[in-house]
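User: Please run a holo structure prediction.
Assistant: Happy to. Please share the sequence and the ligand.
User: Here you go; the ligand is adenosine-5'-triphosphate.
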Amino acid sequence: MSAAIPIVAPSPGSEQLAETPARPTKKDQAQRRTQCRNELIYGSCKFADSGCPFYHPSKEASVSFTTPPVTTSQPATPAPREMPSTPNTNTPSKGTSGLGGLSANVNAPIFVPKGFTPMLAGQANTPSSSTAPSTAPAETPTTQPTEYDYGDDFHFDYLDDTPYNKPNEITALAPPFVPNSQQTAEGYTPAIDPYAHEMNPYYAEEPVYPRQPLQYDLYNPPLPYMTNIPQQANPFLADDVREMLQRRSEAIMETSPVDYKLPDELHVYHSLVPIEPPGETRHPRVFQWPSISYKAISAKDGRPYILRRFEGFRLMHEAAFAAISVWNQIKHPGLVTLHEAFTTRAFGDSSLVFVFDYHPNSESLYMAHIKPKQPQQKAGRSQPHAPHLAEATMWSYAVQLADAMRVAHSHNLALRTLELTKVLLTGKNRVRVNCCGVFDVLNFNPAHNVIGFQQNDYMNFGKLLLELACNSTAAATNLPKSMDMVSKRYSPDLTKLILYLITPAGPPKNLDKLFEYIGSRRVLDELNAVSNYADSLEGQLMSELENARLVRLMTKLGFINERPEFDHDPRWSETGDRYIIKLFRDYVFHQVDIHGNPVVNLSHVLACLNKLDAGIDERVMLVSRDEQSCLVVSYKDIKSAIETAFTDLSRASVR
Ligand SMILES: Nc1ncnc2c1ncn2[C@@H]1O[C@H](COP(=O)(O)OP(=O)(O)OP(=O)(O)O)[C@@H](O)[C@H]1O
């Protein structure tokens, strides 16, 4: 049995027909056995005594359907307009036939809205409100041909003096939303709808515009265990996270406006773009060979990589590449992964190329913290840069870099590039050591002493922290002065750590001693910070998960709505179940207020689409654009209609 209740204007002359008794046919006899829908919906049929062919029960029987008198004036407004929808708490699902059944149901000649009755009956027990519809006679409505092709058998209801598509009638059928304990769940703000006052022109005294709460079961709030992170009111990705990801995505796709005459292809890489304009030297170089870095795309996996090219380098020992395979096996969050190295003549010289992971929009610690910057403008005022790094940031870097060192040393390797320009800031407080393995090839020596390089790592680490603490690349040239500055700016613990690292004298340094200086509390602080950040990102992902559902839904609507032709039928998207989908689209997106201005109400759209996605039994009244017909359908039915239409389209697309 259908849940769709089409109510349309009679065609011209239908009233005439109603008054002229026709010859009893088989169809007429069937009609006489069918209860008149006006009785069911409005409680009475004004044509009961003047030729309505349907069955009319006695007045006592239909008493529960009578509607109280109206006190508000009838408006004349454009369509479509915001319609209150009916919460389904009292209306269990009955008889909706699932996928594809809607067309048949809509065209069914006999209609008994089973799921509807309890709601109406429930209303009879509720005290009537002043906004209830009128049963008083009014003008006979204009009769327009309906847009919907219902077929010959379709039962037309005569619009009585209280047209069904008037808002006060709708209120009677769909009482205003009253938040229950579930609906007042987290995330629902009573003042969520800025249009509420505009959308209730008929209820100025008692606003009953159904605000569209984001129900917890349809739109999930952040996970409960996320109480350790600030809650965000925005159901979408936070602005700063969106901007960060957007910038990264742009950086990946960036191309060079200048033609640098680079090879089109290099090994398996193509689309080479220099990371920095070539030829500029801004700070002491770490490597004795000039190098230039390119972003390139791998033809193997389509991912971006960094190609660091050493110009004019001649490789003397093939064995130098042995370290590359070891570095390649180390995947650590504190290291920029080295993938491979090769020599090439594609640039017109003999070049050595290292391939690293590409971290879009990253910058070196030198660029981020030491390089002088233009003062930033905020609210029209220039903001001075922080004079020095916060102690917590210093410890965070120290913990991450110490762990990167630990993993390299445990593989019997040395980092050798713990320098301000070779440590990349790849995210919020996330540092990674870059260019690991480069020295192992550039300065290859079969008799090299890895322990000596590892001891140098401690020295370089101390120097890097000192330079960051003093905000200067020259800090190591005057140690007493620099250490004095550090002790004034930072805690004794940090001063002791730097002193331990940069002092050459004493026994060989080791990781245990290093972590003793750092202290387990600092490591746990870092763990907490990372966990909080992971939680916050997970919360953000959660909101994107919801949005992805809605995008899929809107994509389906886009495939179906306004399709010019399908299955050799130019009216495919306007007929059958698709007509319901069209009306639903109008209901969700094309509402207008009393002045005919568009209602751009995001919470309404989100609530409708979420209900649709969940396919709930709640009913919604869809009104045709000429306001002459309306359908009462459940979200479940609309979902079925969309699924059926989309499945038809998908099937045809693979044929
Ligand atoms: N793997 C990478 N992923 C993303 N960006 C990188 C990567 N490596 C380097 N960069 C970018 O290139 C910039 C320059 O780094 P690079 O190591 O080339 O410094 P440099 O100034 O050329 O130093 P040097 O001359 O000593 O090699 C960095 O600040 C960073 O923005």
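Confidence is low (pLDDT under 50) at residues 7-24, 60-204.
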